[in-house]
Design goal:
Two copies of one chain form a homodimer.
Chain A: H1 2-6, E1 9-20, E2 23-30, E3 40-41, E4 44-46, H2 53-65, E5 73-78, E6 89-97, E7 111-115, H3 126-141, E8 155-156, H4 157-168, H5 174-182, E9 187-193, E10 203-207
Parallel strand pairs in A: 1-6
Antiparallel strand pairs in A: 1-2, 1-4, 2-3, 2-7, 5-6, 8-10, 9-10
Chain A binds a DNA duplex (30 and 30 nucleotides) through residues 156-158, 173-176, 178-180, 197-203, 225.
Chain lengths: 225, 225
DNA sequence: TAAACATAGTGTACCTGTTACAATTATAAA
DNA sequence: TTTATAATTGTAACAGGTACACTATGTTTA
């Protein structure tokens, strides 16, 4: 009985989403070892005795992608006895939205972005984990301006709308989107304009700097009167 | 390193909420063993190798309370290295809403309901787990008719309103509540009336029987047109 | 330098849902 | 029959969401 209890292993796995080439993409790593050697998987690793789950997720993310200081949210814990073909591994899944440019992944072909709409075969139950993460991100998005984690520091409203549309998987009305976006707490209108477009320049916006200390600082719920 | 990985223990802990004596209460068990011997705790137990987390939660609930076939929802996984004073125990918390009458707990003084507004000192981080569970229940309640898990098969709208008020911790307008409640999908008006009150009898309602198979069958989101 | 082009930017009417609010009805008890 | 208590009912104002099409501005090109 004691033996039975003691042989679980605990990992964290992290779904990292970004917008790249006009599509929603997830960061995958090609596994170097069995099981599922050669298959793609979301970054993950064992939880150490000295760290809590959030810390483990942060550390693993840093180790695998060199990304630091990002908001990670615990998603769900997956514990099917057969999810790992060899041992009993329970994994606590996290997810994050980040800017693709913040990650340096040119070093190796074994780590790369993949469109969520066209995933390769994945190791373990990672497809299920990614799907669940998309569902949660969409739910979250309906309430809070989550998408700004995906945007550059300065961005146009059209870029912001594009991000929402890619996550939600549907197109939005421009006027209604802008009306609502402009009500977002913390959105700051700048006196600068984008110069990338060869047409009419668009006004740039940014978000007020928010402290990353509090756990949900990124998610500014609209105040209820 | 391998050793370090292998010594986590995994438990499930279950927050069981009910309405009893006009207040929201949680089921607690007095611990028989160290650590925290004699302190109250929410029911929990180790996850076995052969079962997934949902199954472990169901089994533990059944063992401790004899409650079966109830909708349990995974809440959050708590993994602070210091949450257990002796070993490293990561716990996956679940919660359930049930009818107090469905549990037989007269057998022992070591298992009892406690008002969530007036909890005794609790073992481990169980106070945090209960608070988080209340928060989630309230969020859920705003979207879905969760509360019927707390109600008898046949109930009055006043009873239903009471349940919502106790969970939300605030009083609601009677007319507005009834207007909205009557729109709830699956609510059935009966041709029976309550006889408990010594005043004007109230009409009874029930919910259509719903299959418990699908994971979120209990939570009927309002359809979006 | 003028016309064409492409994207940025803007307002209104309607519908839906939410809120605030008070009088009448039905039964049991006195 | 009166009284007490809880059940039941509707409406007007307001807020928020949706649908919908044209004008403005800078760049490119002829």
């Amino acid at each position: 009985m004691f033996n039975e209890i003691k042989t679980h292993e605990i990992t964290v796995d992290i779904v990292i989403l970004t917008i790249k080439n006009n599509s929603l993409q997830v960061l995958l790593i090609k596994r170097q070892n069995e099981p599922f050697k050669g298959k793609w998987a979301i970054p993950g690793g064992y939880v150490r005795m000295s760290e809590n789950l959030d810390e483990a997720a942060m550390r693993v993310l840093k180790e695998k992608t060199n990304v630091d200081n990002i908001y990670l949210e615990q998603l769900y814990t997956f514990g099917d006895p057969l999810r790992h073909p060899i041992s009993r591994v329970i994994t606590c899944a996290y997810f994050a939205l980040i800017r693709a440019e913040d990650i340096e992944i040119t070093s190796t072909p074994d780590i790369d972005w993949h469109k969520v709409s066209n995933l390769p075969p994945l190791a373990f139950d990672h497809k299920e984990i990614i799907n669940y993460s998309l569902k949660r991100t969409r739910e979250r998005l309906e309430m809070c301006p989550v998408a700004y984690q995906l945007l550059n520091e300065k961005f146009t409203l059209t870029e912001m709308q594009k991000a929402y549309e890619l996550i939600m998987g549907k197109s939005l009305d421009k006027r209604n989107f802008r009306k609502k976006a402009l009500q977002t707490e913390g959105l700051v209108e700048l006196d600068e304009f984008s110069k990338t477009s060869s047409k009419r320049p668009a006004r740039l916006y940014k978000f007020e700097t928010i402290k990353l200390n509090s756990k949900r600082a990124h998610f500014i719920k609209k105040e209820k009167k």
